[in-house]
Every structure is written in structure tokens, then in C-alpha cells.
Amino acid sequence: MPAWRCLLPGGRWHFQHGPMDLIIEARGDSRAVALAHEHAWLRFAGLLQELVDELPALRAPVGAGCALRGVVARRMWAACRPYRAGFITPMAAVAGAVAQEILAGYARDGIARAWVNNGGDIALHLAPGASASVGICSDIAALDAAQLRNGLLPDGQLRIRSAMPVRGVATSGWRGRSQSLGIADSVTVLARTAAEADAAATIVANAVDVPDERIGRMPAWQVRADSDLGALPVTVAVPALPAGQVRHALRQGLEKAQRLQSDGLLWWALLVCQRQWVATAAPAMAAQPSVAAAPFVAGPPPSIAAAPARSLHPPLHRSLP
């Protein structure tokens, strides 16, 4: 089936081709926006075949050298390279890398703000002084029919400003279309690029885990025949766990996220599991001392520039109204 597109309300575009499912929005000079949309469409139309042509290598574990040829394939490999000591394939960054590639057409004069959302992994273009808000839906299992019909009610909101070194947002977890080794309902990561955010979210979500024989796991290939994870046991069911076990799992993930943050591989991360949450501290930013970001508590949003690591104890429904 060929790639197709349709115009959505508000001037957004929907591009779809196989597993690539993009929602795109741009704001700025109307002519610049129109040209960027056409550039993005021309790039999108042939992108899936480029990836399919190298699919066997993209599904292989990342090694010390890169033999991939395509620019997106190489971007996927580069985003996953820091994690090659464990098991990771370039496919861990595919959604973010695709979003990043399509976004490149919007980085031009006349466009103040643009975003490409590829199934929840988002690449951003922000001209100086611009900002974007990104809603967080921390547990897709909690969505009800009314929200699906009338629009999602986010649990919280991220405010990303141009002065922040963040142009990528990604979420991973055991639910939805992701396959995960852990039990996080969601791990949302802010990073320099969408590909880097995608890879880091995968790694942190894998780390949110606790041993419990009641947690359902199956070889990845039995869950999805084309999985790049092969026989690795991925999570397929998580029962209600004691609060202490959930806290332990979140601590495991937080420690991993803090190490990645220290290494410059992510800027900020929010981890959610069974209505408990934890987040890394936000790096100080002298140029932007008051940057609002999720999670929200009742009242004014916190300053991410001075925010400490978040508590494991507040239940999600109180912390993210």
C-alpha cells in the first residue's frame, strides 16, 4: 500500500505508511509552512522502503561499527550505540528517528514552531523564543471510551521552550505498541533529539522492574513474529503489585535514568507505574530559570530548573490531576 496523507482540522497533516503514522503541525509564515509540508511529504513517501531495504541489519544487535547506509538507519544506530554493552538493536530508536527526519523540512526561515508526532514519539522545531506544550497520558489502560471519542485528557503537561536543549520527546513502557522488558506503564524522556529520546526511554523502561512470578512474560517473537527482540522475555501482563514492590521497580528505573542523565543521554525523565511516579531532577538552566514541566501538583506548575528528584510516594491521581 502506498503512503497517503490527509489534512486534519487546524491545518495539521496526517501522514501514514505501514507502521509509520505521523501527525504534523507547523506555525509561521503561510508560504513557508506550505513549502515545508510538501518537502516533508516528498521525504516521507520513500522512507519506509529505505528502512525495509536494511531491515535485517536494523534488527541485529548494535555492535562496535555501523554498516548501515541510509541516513535514518544510521541515526537509529547512533542513538542506540551508547547502550550496546547490553542488548539493543537500532529499532529501539526507529519512531523517533523517523519523526526527526521528517521534521528537518520544517527547520527553515518563517517557521516559528513545528512538531512531528510518530505514535507518541515527537520531534520539535522551535525558533528562538518559541515554545511547545506536550500532554502526558501516563497509562493508556486508563483511557475510557469518552476520551477516545472526544479527545484525551492528559495527566500532566510538559512546557518545552526554545532555550532548553530539548528537541525530542519519547515514551516507552509495557503497554501499547512497545515491547518492554520492564513493568513501567510509561517512561517519558526529554532529550536533545527524538531518536535519542526514543532509545533512552526504551532503556529506562526496561529497568523499571521487580522479580515477581505473577508478572506475565513471553519470548518476544511469540508476541510479535517480527520482533527484533527474539527470545528475550517481554512483559505481557502485570498484576496489581504491593506499593513497596512498585517503589522498588521505580527506584531501579530512576537509578538508570539518573546515570543516563549524568552521561548527557537524556535531559529529564518521568517514570510511572501503577499510579506511582518518580522523575529525575531537572538540570539547572541559567538562561531559562523558570521552565514549567510535568508533573503538575494543584496550583502553579513547578520550576523545573530547581526541581529535586520527585518522590516515589504520591499516588498518580493526586500528583497528575
Characterization of the model:
The protein is α+β, with helices and mostly antiparallel strands and 321 residues long. It has a single domain (4-319), classed as T-fold (Roll), CATH 3.10.520. The protein is 30% helix and 23% strand. It has a nine-stranded antiparallel sheet with strand order 1-2-3-4-5-8-9-12-13. Strands 6-7 form a two-stranded antiparallel ribbon. A two-stranded antiparallel ribbon has the order 10-11. Strand 2 (13-17) and strand 3 (20-28) form a beta hairpin. Helix 4 runs parallel beside helix 7. The longest helix has 20 residues, at 243-262.
What features would you highlight for this structure?
alpha+beta; 10 helices; disordered C terminus; 321 residues; T-fold
What secondary-structure arrangement, pairings included, does this model have?
Blueprint: E1 4-7, E2 13-17, E3 20-28, H1 30-45, H2 47-53, H3 55-58, H4 71-80, H5 94-103, E4 111-118, E5 121-126, E6 131-136, H6 145-150, E7 156-161, E8 168-172, E9 186-191, H7 194-207, E10 216-219, H8 220-223, E11 233-237, H9 243-262, E12 268-273, E13 276-279, H10 316-319
Antiparallel strand pairs: 1-2, 2-3, 3-4, 4-5, 5-8, 6-7, 8-9, 9-12, 10-11, 12-13
Helix pairs in contact: 4-5, 4-7, 5-7, 7-9
